[in-house]
UniProtKB/TrEMBL annotation, chain A:
Transmembrane segments: none annotated. The gene is moaD. One of its GO terms (biological process) is Mo-molybdopterin cofactor biosynthetic process. CDD domains: Ubl_MoaD. This is Molybdopterin synthase sulfur carrier subunit.
From TrEMBL, chain B:
Belongs to the MoaE family. Keywords: Molybdenum cofactor biosynthesis, Transferase. Pathway: Cofactor biosynthesis; molybdopterin biosynthesis. Pfam families: MoaE. This is Molybdopterin synthase catalytic subunit. One of its GO terms (biological process) is Mo-molybdopterin cofactor biosynthetic process. GO terms for molecular function: molybdopterin synthase activity. The gene is moaE. The lineage of its organism: Bacteria, Bacillati, Bacillota, Bacilli, Bacillales. Its EC number is 2.8.1.12. Heterotetramer of 2 MoaD subunits and 2 MoaE subunits. Also stable as homodimer. The enzyme changes between these two forms during catalysis. It catalyses: 2 [molybdopterin-synthase sulfur-carrier protein]-C-terminal-Gly-aminoethanethioate + cyclic pyranopterin phosphate + H2O = molybdopterin + 2 [molybdopterin-synthase sulfur-carrier protein]-C-terminal Gly-Gly + 2 H(+).
């Protein structure tokens, strides 16, 4: 089971801030593909993924128990 | 005891952070505040709503502090970003840097705000009289005819 968090535009698009996905392991790319398929307009090409609070590469493997977050373009400051 | 790298939901007190970085070896302290601006490209902001992925944002602020210490040895740093609803002139972000001589304090301070805008998971939504938009996200312009 993988936990995913949504923020800002993506929280509003999905209507949720957190959910769990039944999967033992998947790549970051796979997670982005899943999000785009599940939530039209997700805009995966502009979204980064953090795994356990650190930016991950698209080929990185997410394991069951990991906490992921979709990071749309940041705008702090 | 205050955290030198933190996300807060209450007004930012400047003095607290300036005091934190000050020490006997410091000959310079720079304090930058980023404040809520009313007008942006001719559009009037009513207020801003910030949100953050708090645990990761605090880690990334600390990472920026470590990068600064690496590039400008001897600097002492505090960075705080506020989230929630912020109104005109409120402080959204504060960066305090001390160094033995002024050049490092100025340079490191500017470096910090540029890095914050690149890597820290914080998001700003602008709320106008006739619309709203997550900044950094896909553009969504206000609908209807504004009176301005």
């Amino acid at each position: 089971m993988i936990t995913v968090n949504y923020f800002a535009r993506l929280r509003e698009l999905t209507g949720k801030s957190e959910e769990t996905i039944e999967s033992d392991s998947m790549t970051v790319q796979k997670l982005l593909d899943w999000a785009e398929d599940t939530y039209p307009g997700f805009g995966k090409s502009t979204v980064h993924v953090a795994v356990n609070e650190e930016y991950a590469l698209k080929e990185d493997i997410i394991q069951s128990g990991d906490v992921c977050a979709f990071i749309p373009p940041v705008s702090g400051g | 005891m205050m955290k030198p790298y933190e996300i807060v939901e209450t007004p930012i007190e400047i003095q607290k952070y300036a005091d934190y970085v000050l020490h006997a070896g410091a000959g310079a302290v720079t304090v930058f505040t980023g404040n809520v601006r009313e007008w942006t490209h001719g559009i009037r902001t009513l207020y801003l709503a910030y949100e953050a992925y708090i645990p990761m944002a605090e880690k990334k602020l600390a990472q920026i502090g470590a990068e600064m210490e690496d590039k400008w040895p001897g600097v002492k740093v505090a960075i705080v970003h506020r989230i929630g609803e912020l109104h005109i002139s409120d402080i959204a972000v504060l960066i305090a840097v001390s160094s033995s001589h002024r050049k490092a304090a100025y340079e490191a301070n500017e470096y910090a705000i540029e890095r914050i805008k690149e890597i820290v998971p914080i998001w700003k939504k602008e709320i106008w009289e006739n619309g709203e938009e997550w900044i950094g996200a896909q553009k969504k312009y206000p609908e209807g005819n504004g009176s301005e």
